């Protein structure tokens, strides 16, 4: 029987393991931490009973993918829940904007800018199923839907600062800027529109759902289905070298590129080791979990309905903050992403006390304490917020990396999203999952299609391994 070892039990490692096991491969997953899940762990971090997602909290690209269509996780406890508003962007004075599932409803809320919003996201949301089928694969491939992908590409290639000129109001520009900031790139850099266009379109097509009971439900469902296919998972096992693995036929590494180089050692060709060593990581995330009595008192009332709230002020303010972070300087007013998963999933709350998830974009490896700056940004748009905080749990960039070694310097997206790396991650290659050693593959978020709990990097890597095995 063909055997495989998967190092790392994040959603990509588990997806790779499940894809292999479903084809009859005997699979063993080894996880260094005491619990499985990587970026999909959920715990009571503040007060008993409040469920906090430790990293990935919203899953717009996980609902309808080749992997999700191949494996039905609903029978193993995974249930998606949607907030009424997908994401919101508050502005000073109680103003703001909201992205609804409907393009038309979103456009209607943007007044004169509605037509321009519709022109960007209308066609894309209608065709997003076919478009996503292409961009969830490695960039260097023959597209199945070339004309649709080309239209998506034309809107994705410009800098976010240029795309934002389509809108004149602070509300519409802010709504786009908040979702574009997920790229953690300066708004003036090439292709910095891409992630904003993709996530904005996904919000209209699929919404930004959460997993009932926390993102850990994703890992639980994957592990359960893996066991059904005969796969096993061992926690508390740290792998330092391929020599520790008893020569399985396939090795899947759900690790950062630098860690892959260390694990493989001298068996990796020098040119590949050199390319992976040069892999660039992005800015860090400084994360604070709050237990809040009575929810966040946003002045912009529709923000209270949103699963995600982008807190950064005007487009120009966000552009300045992201530029500062890119230069290695901590901005006075950082971009803050606030997660209100309880809006869609009330089971995470306890009585009137709710869990609130927040992280600020900070320089990579930032050693300071960004708690005050992060809280000040929320307080700015929700006066009285601090008075409602019952408890906090703070995780610095260093602690983010300690919690999950793939988050180098606090980089929760496992790699800088600059133009070259978006196309050639983790290195220029027709098959970016291969590592130059027969049977050994990289399957982490450093490989296409990148960050998210969709499992597609693991699925793609496993399919690559199976194809080569068959050859």
UniProtKB/TrEMBL annotation:
InterPro entries: FAD/NAD-bd_sf. Gene3D superfamilies: FAD/NAD(P)-binding domain (3.50.50.60). This is Phytoene dehydrogenase-like protein. It comes from Nocardioides salarius.
